[in-house]
Amino acid sequence: MQFCACNIILPLSDDAVVKAADIYAALKKLGELISDGDILVAAIAITNNLVLITNNSNHFSRINGLIIDNWKK
After folding, report:
1. DSSP state of 2
2. pLDDT-based confidence at residue 63 (cuts at 50, 70, 90)
């Protein structure tokens, strides 16, 4: 509970939904779809100009415009 209390929860905005649709279309065209949840997380990061910290670089590196970092390396 303390962890959540000291973090900012970002909403799923209209801009993020539009970006998610663009990401989905681009990945589908390439035949490299990832889960809808991952696409939404990426879209929220992009529309808020944030770096996405993930241990799943394989999926998220497919998304153009998304800056990722893996702290586990």
Report:
1. H
2. very high
